[in-house]
């Protein structure tokens, strides 16, 4: 058992319920088991496996199973229990759970000492047609399967594939698709449609400069300042952001990456404890994309922030249950971020946002970060607090 500063265990074996088996939920689970292996943990999630969702673009190169970790495997590895169910959350329920220290899942009442809400956020939805794909489709099938199904493989004329959304997800899919099309010698033109005047707007200007250069080299068409309105047949319907004029462009297949939509934004104090109507619920913690911490730490919706919040929550649950009850504030800020541009290129920043790295150095950084998370799922924590 690893040593956790300011944690002196009490005599009682604590019970923890974690709602959500994503990055934050599993970071909390593995942290609890690292510092207190006898913690009784129940994981509630509607799925059968944890999905490394930020890697879905890699299914153009690897099987989907490489990104999945069955909850049954985690049950065996960490001695926890998984219940396949969804958990509705409201402010009233949060207060009720704090008072009662149990919750109902189906016909079962589950007692807990601490509850972790780590249910994440869902993708923004739009009206779908046969030739429109979203991130949800890639959770079920690999990229090659979906493209082969949707494209007219016997078509002699050049087909057009549109990627809507120039955030990290859209950009990573864009370049993976370009590499796949080239490797399979599929006659198709790629176009990137985005509502701003540059791509990756959440990152420094240098990201846009590098990505635009790569797009030009690979003959990927950019369509800036365009809002997506829908798909009709083989035409994508757009609105010029500056003039409001509606227009259409040819698109045989459209991939929508419209960003995340939070089902419920929940407030937490600087220690990760839920705050409802200015009341701190000391035994309920919030982590991941559904959480906004009242602290100086990063509230960016990213896997990095979700993992750091989950780890903090795990540590603070143990401290709160111990004899000292000295909690740790959330102060994490990302020290880097890398966006893949296909299998052999990337762009990112390290230490400071002005320090932009590209190519093999950027790929190396990304692989190291990803290896850290893979080790965490095996119970080996190499993160620096």
TrEMBL record:
Gene3D superfamilies in alphabetical order: 3.50.50.100
Superkingdom, natural source: Bacteria
Cofactor(s) of this protein: FAD
Keyword Nucleotide-binding assigned: no
Record-linked Pfam families: Pyr_redox_2
Any single GO BP term: aerobic electron transport chain
Gene Ontology molecular function terms on file: NAD(P)H dehydrogenase (quinone) activity
Keywords for this protein: FAD, Flavoprotein, Oxidoreductase
Domain FAD/NAD(P)-binding: 15-310
Family assignment from sequence similarity: Belongs to the NADH dehydrogenase family.
Name under which the protein is recorded: NADH dehydrogenase
Lineage: Bacteria, Pseudomonadati, Pseudomonadota, Betaproteobacteria, Nitrosomonadales
């Amino acid at each position: 058992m690893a040593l956790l500063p300011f944690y002196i265990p009490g005599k009682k074996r604590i019970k923890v319920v974690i709602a959500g088996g994503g990055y934050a939920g599993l970071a909390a689970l593995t942290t609890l088991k690292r510092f207190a292996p006898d913690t009784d943990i129940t994981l509630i999630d509607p799925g059968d496996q944890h999905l490394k969702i930020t890697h879905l673009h890699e299914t153009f190169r690897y099987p989907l199973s490489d990104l999945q970790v069955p909850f049954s495997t985690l049950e065996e590895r960490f001695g926890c229990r998984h219940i396949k169910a969804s958990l509705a959350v409201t402010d009233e329920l949060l207060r009720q759970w704090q008072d009662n220290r149990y919750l109902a899942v189906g016909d079962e009442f589950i007692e807990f000492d601490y509850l972790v809400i780590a249910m994440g956020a869902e993708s923004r939805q739009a009206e779908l047609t046969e030739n429109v794909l979203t991130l949800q489709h890639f959770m079920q099938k690999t990229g090659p399967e979906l493209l082969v199904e949707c494209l007219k493989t016997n078509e002699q004329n050049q087909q057009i594939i549109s990627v809507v959304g120039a955030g990290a997800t859209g950009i990573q899919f864009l370049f993976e698709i370009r590499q796949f099309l080239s490797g399979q010698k599929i006659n198709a033109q790629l176009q990137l449609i985005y509502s701003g005047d540059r791509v990756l707007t959440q990152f420094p200007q240098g990201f846009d400069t590098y990505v635009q250069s790569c797009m030009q080299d690979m003959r990927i068409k950019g369509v800036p300042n365009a809002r997506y309105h829908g798909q009709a047949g083989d035409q994508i319907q757009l609105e010029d952001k500056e003039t409001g004029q509606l227009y259409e462009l040819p698109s045989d297949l459209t991939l929508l990456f419209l960003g995340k939509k939070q089902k419920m934004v929940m407030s937490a104090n600087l220690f990760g404890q839920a705050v409802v109507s200015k009341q701190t619920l000391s035994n309920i913690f919030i982590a991941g994309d559904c959480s906004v911490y009242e602290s100086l730490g990063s509230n960016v919706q990213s896997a990095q922030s979700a993992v750091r919040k989950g780890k903090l929550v795990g540590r603070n649950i143990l401290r709160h249950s111990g004899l000292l009850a000295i909690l740790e504030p959330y102060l994490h800020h990302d020290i880097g971020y890398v966006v893949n541009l296909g299998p052999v290129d990337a762009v990112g920043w390290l230490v400071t946002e002005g320090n932009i790295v590209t190519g093999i150095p950027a790929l190396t950084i990304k692989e190291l970060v990803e290896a850290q998370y893979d080790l965490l799922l095996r119970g080996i924590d190499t993160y620096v607090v």
